[in-house]
Amino acid sequence: MIVPFAHAGQVAVSPGCAVSRTRTNLPEDELTCAIPASELKSLIERLETSTAADRAASEFAAADTERNFTTA
Question: pTM for the full model?
């Protein structure tokens, strides 16, 4: 069902039904998605922004833990 959504201009994500997963040999830890080509650049930019923010927050948390919660 994700292809019609993408064809209509929407990003679609699906864990996949049992039949689809079996036919495509999709591993348990993966899912499928369909992204309209017109949305791909924007999606990549937003993922890069989000990843940078997550990385900064993780680095802050690690440093904070080291400063405040680690015993020498």
Answer: 0.61
Same domain for 46 and 17, yes or no, is: no
21 burial type by CB count under 10 A (0-12 exposed, 13-18 middle, 19+ buried): middle
Asked if residue 43 and residue 18 are part of one domain, the reply reads no
Please, what is the end-to-end C-alpha distance for the chain in angstroms? 55
The CA–CA distances, whole Å, from 25 to 12, 22, 35, 41, 59 equal 20, 5, 21, 28, 37
Q: Which H or E run includes 34?
A: strand 32-34
Residue 72 has pLDDT above 70, yes or no: no
